[in-house]
Structure formats: C-alpha cells, structure tokens
Design a protein that fits this description.
mainly alpha
C-alpha cells in the first residue's frame, strides 16, 4: 500500500505503509527515551515542569498510536479536516500529524 501525497513541487510522491510505520516507530522510540529521561530526573512527581513535560510526551505517544491506527485503516496521510492528502514533507517531519498545514492553523 502506498500513500500518494503532493510534494512541494506539485508532483505526487509515494510513502508506503511500511515507510510510515518506520517513521512512526522512530518517533515512538524517541518519545519513550524522552519519557524515561524525564522519569529518571529525580524530581518529585509534583514538579510542575516535569509534570508538564511528561504530559506532553504522553500526548504525543497517544497521537503516534492513533497514527498507527490510521495506517492500518488506510487513512494515514489524509487530513482529518479537509480530507486532502497531507504533503509527504509534512509527514516526514511529523509522521503522526492528522492535519495538513492549512487545517492545522485553524484547528483548536
């Protein structure tokens, strides 16, 4: 399965489901390492900064899990707002994104 998305030059580039999964696995691994580092800082659990960082990392991990579900469902790479393809360059930077740039600017 490939996910065709428009490149910046207007031509379609393909991103296979395997490539998407690899990018998502890398993003997940990175966030898990970050979460482990935050948990090992020795700061108390009620430290506001550490708590905020932990919450942000856990939110991204949830988004990554949701992106894996979109790959499985065949909807990965499609904007959840406008249903247009998300440019492959955006997926390379944020493999778990749900929105194209235009829709993300207006999303809550």
């Amino acid at each position: 399965m490939s996910i065709d998305t428009p490149a910046a030059d207007g031509h379609l580039r393909s991103l296979t489901a395997d490539e998407a999964r690899r990018r998502l696995e890398h993003a997940r691994g990175t966030r898990l390492v970050q979460l482990e580092a935050v948990n090992e800082t020795g700061h108390p659990a009620d430290d506001q900064l550490m708590s905020a960082q932990r919450t942000a990392i856990e939110r991204v991990l949830k988004e990554i899990d949701d992106a894996f579900a979109r790959v499985a469902a065949g909807t990965y790479g499609t904007c959840e707002n406008c249903a247009k393809p998300v440019p492959v360059e955006r997926l390379e930077i944020l493999p778990y994104t749900r929105y194209c740039v235009t829709c993300r600017r207006v999303a809550p």
